[in-house]
Write a structure and sequence with these properties.
The structure holds two protein chains of two kinds. Chain A is about 35% helix and about 25% strand. Chain A has a five-stranded mixed sheet, with helices on both faces. The radius of gyration of chain A is 18 Å and the shape is globular. In chain A, helix 3 packs across helix 4. In chain A, strand 5, helix 5 and strand 6 form a beta-alpha-beta unit. Chain A has two domains: about 100 residues, P-loop containing nucleotide triphosphate hydrolases (Rossmann fold); about 80 residues, no CATH class. Chain B is built from nine helices and no strands. Chain B is about 70% helix and about 0% strand. Chain B has one domain. The longest helix of chain B is centred in the N-terminal third of the chain and has 32 residues. Classes of the chains: A alpha/beta, B mainly alpha. At the A-B interface, helix 1 and helix 2 of A face helix 1 of B.
Chain lengths: ~230, ~270
């Protein structure tokens, strides 16, 4: 169980204090798949950071009864002067996981082969993303944070990611932030809309999406997936 | 029962922290020195070279330092000490920004990033100091320290000072751009005043009193007395150094807490 109680977040900007999250209350139970919609700059990533513990709330409390992943397939954590294997080793050390058991898995999954022993700075962005996804999958969490859809690599790799995440790990809790309504509709059973620094919950995806579309002022495609 | 639980939580926290600092340390070593040529040996070869150059320079110019202490012994104790307390702040400045994404791993704290860098500097400077001492001792240019424990004590006080200063300067530099620019010239001013090139006894009494407000000079005098005490009259106040270090540590920890980092978003 993850619980946010009265969480607020303020940032100081040049134009005074900006409230990104305003008294947010949220409970996420084991195994729940929660989708979060919101426009750019609405505070989605801030929320993800606070849930993940990379940032602390200005006021309010957060209780984590589950282990929470770092944002999945997040490539920013790499030290690019080091090799892919070095980066994996660092993660394994931090999470107290046996590196030797994971290296083969990551090598196979990321399809990087011997590139794994080259500095990450020589990788293409696609290769980085594959490595990031592979490393994310090598540590076991109760709850996965997914900031934006993982649209990595070619069709077959994306398929592999889907299987790994949504089939093998479908019993895990997931918090997914995305602009893609299709993606959220297919994968989530709860929908949150982040608007004016507050969270609104919709059990019905269509309603949530309708609100999201209204908020965007019709600026996005208006076709709505047919209800099934 | 509650105590037992608290103890377990604490030991667990300690274990995690050790693991994180260890991992950061190795990551730092690999990033800085890589696997090419002599690799991580640079960690102490670099400060050793610095000290050797200074030693050679002072020997060549027969620098006046106002005592009968051999220049080699003088330079090694003096310059090693400078490296110890000055490199820690240098390495801690702007240390968080390049590592900010690591904070996504919840067990990694800003504090750990500083500690890893400080430990690395400490290991480098200490190995360099000990190695040079042994080398010059083995070829007979240097006598063994008269009181090893006192040398160690002085060294540790300096390291403590450097660590606290490092964290303070590091944390301040995250919040204020100014610190970034002001610290280097400032450290250049206090470097010559901190005893690398003189002993306090050689100064006029009035000036000595002023300069002894620098905690590094006190610690260095203590260290030098331990090394070749019979050849000099040392001036220091251990209580003063500890007090300074303590206050500095409190300020440093408070600043580190304030490093409000907005983890880099991709």
């Amino acid at each position: 169980m993850i619980q946010l109680i009265g969480v607020s977040k303020f940032y100081k900007t040049l134009h005074g204090t900006k409230t990104v999250l305003d008294n947010v209350n949220l409970t996420i139970a084991p195994g729940e798949h929660v989708g979060i919609l919101g426009r750019n700059g609405a505070g989605k990533s801030t929320l993800v950071r606070i849930i993940g513990g990379a940032d602390t709330p200005s006021t309010g409390e957060i209780h984590r009864g589950m282990t929470v992943s770092w944002p999945l397939a997040f490539t920013g954590g790499f030290q690019t002067a080091l090799t892919g294997a070095d980066n994996l080793r660092f993660i394994c050390r931090i999470y107290n996981v046996d590196y030797k058991k994971q290296i083969d898995y990551v090598k196979e999954f990321s399809e990087l082969g011997s590139y794994l022993y080259e500095p990450v700075r020589t990788y293409s962005s696609g290769m980085r993303a594959k490595l990031a996804f592979g490393i994310s999958m090598s540590i076991d969490f109760d709850c996965y944070l997914i900031d934006e859809v993982i649209a990595v690599g070619d069709e077959s790799f994306r398929d592999k990611c889907r299987v790994e995440l949504f089939e093998k790990r479908s019993h895990k809790a997931m918090i997914i932030v995305s602009h893609s309504h299709r993606y959220l509709k297919d994968t989530c059973d709860r929908f949150l809309l982040l608007r004016n620094a507050k969270i609104e919950e919709f059990t019905d995806f269509r309603e949530g999406y309708e609100q999201y579309r209204l908020m965007m002022g019709g600026g996005i495609e208006s076709e709505l997936p047919d209800a099934t | 029962m509650a105590n037992e639980k608290a103890l377990r939580v604490m030991t667990r926290g300690w274990e995690v922290q050790q693991r994180v600092i260890g991992a950061l340390l190795l990551r730092e070593v690999l990033t800085r020195y890589g696997r090419n040529n002599i690799g991580f040996l640079w960690l102490f070869v670099e400060p050793m070279l610095f000290t050797l150059v200074i030693t050679a320079l002072w020997t060549a110019t027969r620098s006046v330092h106002g005592s009968d202490i051999p220049i080699v012994a003088f330079a090694i104790t003096g310059y090693s000490s400078v490296l110890l307390w000055r490199n820690m702040p240098n390495r801690c400045m702007r240390a968080v920004i390049p590592n900010v994404s690591l904070l996504f791993h919840r067990q990694v704290k800003v504090f750990d990033i500083y500690i890893a860098r400080i430990l690395l500097e400490f290991l480098g400077a200490t190995t360099s100091f000990v190695a040079l001492g042994l080398i010059f001792w083995s070829i007979g240019w240097l006598t063994a320290p008269e009181d090893v424990l006192q040398v160690l004590f002085g060294w540790m006080l300096l390291a403590w000072f450097g660590a606290a200063l490092g964290m303070l300067i590091g944390a301040l530099s995250e919040n204020m751009d100014m610190v970034d620019r002001l610290w280097p010239p400032f450290s250049y001013i206090i470097f010559p005043l901190s005893g690398a090139a003189f002993i306090a006894d050689a100064l006029p009494a009035t000036m000595r009193e002023v300069v002894l407000y620098l905690p590094m000079l006190n610690a260095l005098e203590l260290l030098r007395e331990g090394y070749f005490g019979s050849a000099m009259i040392a001036h220091y106040d251990i209580g003063y150094v500890i007090l300074c270090n303590f206050i500095l540590t409190l300020f440093a920890l408070a600043q580190v807490r304030r490093v409000g980092v907005e983890a880099a978003t991709e």
